[in-house]
Structures are given as structure tokens and as C-alpha cells.
Amino acid sequence: MNRTEFAEAIRHLDTRPYRVTINAPSDGAMQRGCYLENGVWKVYETDKNRRMKVLYKHKSEEKAFSWLYQLLTRQQGRKKKWFAFWK
């Protein structure tokens, strides 16, 4: 999945509490994203204190955005399982 396919796919996802940014590192709180630096795509997240942590690195744009998409969908699935008993 490249960045345009990723941008289209996340329109249908609830990414809260994180905001998702593409193509630029962010120093804001609670953000996840992917950006290119020196030929390497880096998937990152920031915490409440705005500290950035690189979660995944790869030279392939497709693999980096696929990894980020899986991270976002896995988080969404966890919420459904965790709060399923409230229904």
C-alpha cells in the first residue's frame, strides 16, 4: 500500500486517540505517521509529552505504510474486543 492508498484507507478508520500524519515528522502530542528520511521510511508515534518514538523502518514505501495501517487496524480491533462486554 502506498501513501495515496493509505490516505484513502484511513478515511474509514477511527484512529483516536492518535492523529495520523503522512510525509512529515510531527512534534505534536499523540500522533502516528510515516515519513521519508535519507531514503528510509520511518513509522513513528508521539506520546502525551510529545516524545517521538520510531516504531518501524524500511526502504520500501509500500511496506512502511502497510505496517502503519496494520498498527492502526490492530488498535481498532483491540478496542472492540476490550469493550465488547459493555454491550
Salient structural properties:
87 residues; alpha+beta; 33% helix
Number of helices: 2
Radius of gyration from CA coordinates: 13 Å
Question: Whole-Å distance between the termini?
Answer: 34 Å
What share of the residues lie within helices? Answer: 25-40%
State mean pLDDT (0 to 100 scale): 85
Low-confidence stretches: none
β-sheet strand percentage: 25-35%
Structural class: alpha+beta
Topology order in helix (H) and strand (E) letters: HEEEEH
- Shape field: globular
How would you characterize the overall build of this protein?
The protein has 87 residues and is α+β, with helices and mostly antiparallel strands. The protein has two helices and four strands, in the order H-E-E-E-E-H. A four-stranded mixed beta sheet has the order 1-2-3-4, covered by helices on one side. A hairpin with a 5-residue loop joins strand 3 (40-46) and strand 4 (52-58).
Structure described in brief:
With 87 residues, this protein is α+β, with helices and mostly antiparallel strands. Helix content is 33%, strand content 29%.
Chart the SSEs and their pairings.
Blueprint: H1 3-9, E1 19-22, E2 31-37, E3 40-46, E4 52-58, H2 61-82
Parallel strand pairs: 1-2
Antiparallel strand pairs: 2-3, 3-4
